[in-house]
Amino acid sequence: MSYKQIKWMILLIPTITVGLWEYIRHQFLMPYLSMDAGNWLTPVIVYLVSVTLLSRLFRMLESARAALEQERASKTALEARDQLARELHDGISQSLFLLSVKADKAGRSLSGTNHEQDIREIQKTVHEVNTYVRQSIAQLRYVPSPTADPEAIALQVQVESIVSDTVPEADMQWHWTEISLSAKEQVELLACIREALLNVRKHAKASKVQVHAEGSVSDWLIQIQDNGIGLQGDPMLLKDRYGLRITKERAEQMGWSFRLESRPGDTRMIIGKGRT
User: Fold this and answer.
1) According to the lineage, what is the superkingdom (predicted)?
2) Cα 174 to chain center, whole Å?
3) What is the pTM of this model?
4) How is the chain split into domains, by residue range?
5) Which top CATH class is 147-276?
């Protein structure tokens, strides 16, 4: 039953009920029912109809209104995501492409000089930033599945996309079926996972990588594990590990636990909520 039909039913049922009662009362019950008794029975009948039929219709109306508001909110969120994706593509992405072209030109001009290595580092950084931006655009344009547990499925698909773009050979085990994360929490969590996988790809020299996720709405854990060379010393103090410090700060700001365990052949980054 549509929203409009429910409203008309709520308006018409009391009117029809009173009309039928008055007709039956005057046509068939006048010899048996006094005028005063009939007048008292009219509000009682309307009340009983309201309690039985109208209360159910009101619940249906509230459900329909909630569904409509949720649909509008989802549409607004998708429009905002699409607008942000367009702005990223038209602004930052194109600027990065132009910067990469200029960096390539500078690299050819300075080939064989003392600045050749610096130019290569700049080209590498521009390429990585461009990859981040393109991944963000793809995630913003991703439309969640309308099937059961769409939020869990959407997050899983986005993590799978990050894995395929960074460490395609990684083994992914997803046992997280009920998710209740805000948009900001999902963005921060995806950024942490991406940074962990990029560190594995750039520094770990690993032959085996595993992404493991499990938990429920309020109690979950995500672990990125590899069998690489590990980290020497405290990774949070290394000069070339800005990403790890930023990842830890992201997790702490969201109220999540963060743990990094590293030794040769077994390095693990664990982010969780309600778990250690």
Assistant:
1) Bacteria
2) 16
3) 0.52
4) 3-72, 147-276
5) alpha beta
